[in-house]
Amino acid sequence: MMDDPAELQLWNRALRDDGEAFGRLFDLHRARVYRRALGLTEDRHNAEDVTATAFFELWRKRRSVTPVNGSVLPWLLVTVVNVSRNLRRSTSRYEKFLRTAPRQPAGGEPDAETVETRQRLAMALKALAPIDGALLVLVVLEDVPIAEAAEAVGIKPVTARVRLHRARARLRENLHDLDPRPRPAEGMSC
């Protein structure tokens, strides 16, 4: 790849929040980014999502992205690989959850215990601070690395670790009777 002065000019304009210049960069690299995403996801819809995410991240992180030989394409391609890997992990976790989730009898309404459990879980999550709830969703359910989750919610990774630890502890305390694992007796050490 060689320096492309036209692309560098577009990039410099995009750095000054020029959406039209960014749109032209999108037009310039979309096909190649999409092909890479399609090769990694093997699904047209997922490839479109991965492509959109890569360009969104380019826009969002534009002030910290350094073009390689005058092009943002290498950064985009690395991002596509990472986003595709995250998508595979997330999809795998979701499919595992679906395979192992308790099944509701066909045509029946959930029993009172299931309804109460769902309500208590929803209330416990709502009681958390919004940042703590977001961290739980990103890190625990979506398997986003804690540093990225911290950046997404606007805090430092060390702060995110502490907040996540405390949020998990609050959920365990509020929902302790739903945990199928036995709790050690008070005053006894393990």
Features:
190 residues; mainly alpha; Rna Polymerase Sigma Factor, Chain: A; Arc Repressor Mutant, subunit A; 2 domains; 8 helices; disordered C terminus; WH-like_DNA-bd_sf
Q: How would you portray this structure in words?
A:
It is a single chain. This protein is mostly helical and 190 residues long. The chain folds into 2 domains: 95 residues, RNA polymerase sigma factor, region 2, helix turn helix motif (Rna Polymerase Sigma Factor, Chain: A), CATH 1.10.1740; 67 residues, Arc Repressor Mutant, subunit A (Orthogonal Bundle), CATH 1.10.10.10. Helices cover 70% and strands 0% of the residues. The protein is built from 8 helices and no strands. Helix 2 packs antiparallel against helix 3. The longest helix has 28 residues. The radius of gyration is 22 Å and the shape is elongated. The C terminus is likely disordered. Pfam families: Sigma70_r2, Sigma70_r4_2. This is RNA polymerase sigma factor.
Our measurement of the CA-to-CA distance between the termini, rounded to an integer number of angstroms, reads: 60 Å
Largest sheet geometry? none
General shape: elongated
User: What oligomerization state is this entry in?
Assistant: single chain
**Low-confidence region ranges:** 186-190
Would you count the extended β strands for me? 0
Instruction: Give the fraction of residues assigned to helices.
Output: over 70%
Mean pLDDT: 85
